[in-house]
Amino acid sequence: MLQNLVKRILLNGFLLIATLSCVSPKVHSELQESYNSVVDENQILESTTDRAETNLKEISSDVKVMRKALETLITDSITKGRKYRKLKKSFDDLNANYQYAINNNSSLVAANLRENKIMLEQMESLAKKLGAKEDSLKLEQSRLINLELALQSRERRVNELESLIARKDSTAQYFRKRIGNALLGFENRGLTVSMKNGQVYVSLDNRLMFASGKWEIQLDGVSALQKLAQVLGENQDLNIAVEGHTDDDAYYGKGQVRDNWDLSVMRATSVVKILIEKGVAAKQIQATGRGEFMPIVANNNADNKAKNRRTEIIITPDLGEIADLISK
Q1: Among residues 112, 128, 144, which one ends one of the domains?
Q2: Under 8 Å CB-to-CB from 201, ≥6 apart: which residues?
Q3: Same domain for 171 and 124
Q4: Is residue 138 part of a domain?
């Protein structure tokens, strides 16, 4: 629009100059200067117009950016406003709770003190219980240690006892073999040698030892006892028990020997005397009468009765060490 106005002014100027071409030089010169001045102003106006248009474009671009920024700022402001109102509400709530806490602080402190006192009392009670439990555990630990030491001591004694029993069994085995060899000729004549519970049993039938109802030993019995005495006399650590046994047939005697009990004692005593006479120490040996009260089979026939009429010599290795160990 500004350029068109300038163009019209210049056109009018040219027309005026053409009209006044016949004027004086002085006027012509003034008009020429005016024309030149208008031309210069026109150039200045054109330059200013270009700069204004450029600035206008830049301002339009900046306006678009600023409008977009403004829209973003408005949106952000709305979002932040919402957050602000939410935070303000939270703050107000917290402030109200804080005021409530301050107003109720005294009661809360008192309640906490009461709870702390109760908890302290409970902890003290628990500490006492734990202390008592610890003392009890120490006593139990001491008892267990003493028990373990006692068990170890007892285990040593058991091992010693087993060793002694093994030695006793070994000794009994040795004498069983020696006695068996010494009495080998009598095995089929009513004599047997066996071992039971660590003891050597020499069983002598009455057919080898005594006539019916008598307690005097027959010659074959004396011969067997002499061989047995030779073996037994070698070791004075042996304990020897002689037991007389009868069947259940009634015995009617005269004098001091009146029944089976008396008869069994007399027969056992007769055996003891022969053994002592043949070299066995008297302190090692004892005589016992069992009568008919320890049969090995039922007395229901003649063969069984014959088996029950017997003299048993029970040989036991010395158990003194074992008895001493057990007594401890």
Answers
A1: 128
A2: 192, 193, 194, 195, 312, 313, 314, 315
A3: no
A4: no
Tens-place pLDDT, residues 204-213 = 999 999 999 9
109 and 57 in a common domain: yes
Q: What is the DSSP letter of 313?
A: E
Q: Of the candidates 136, 118, 246, 228, which has an alpha carbon nearest to the alpha carbon of residue 182?
A: 228
Nearest CA-CA partner of 284 in 224, 228, 226, 242: 242
Distances, alpha carbon 24 to alpha carbons 10, 20, 29, 38, in Å:
22, 9, 9, 21
* Lookup: tokens for 147: 């028990």
d(CA 259, CA 261): 5
Q: Are 192 and 303 contained in the same domain? A: yes
Residue 145 located in a structural domain: no
In sequence order, what E strands does the chain have? 191-196, 199-205, 238-245, 285-291, 310-317
Query: In whole angstroms, what is the distance from residue 262 CA to residue 210 CA?
Result: 15
Element (H, E) at 48: helix 25-103
List of E strands, 13-117 = none
Average pLDDT of the residues in 95-122: 79
CATH number at residue 299: 3.30.1330.60
Instruction: Give a yes or no: residue 210 inside a domain.
Output: yes
Domain assignment of residue 241, given as a range: 167-327
pTM > 0.70: yes or no: no
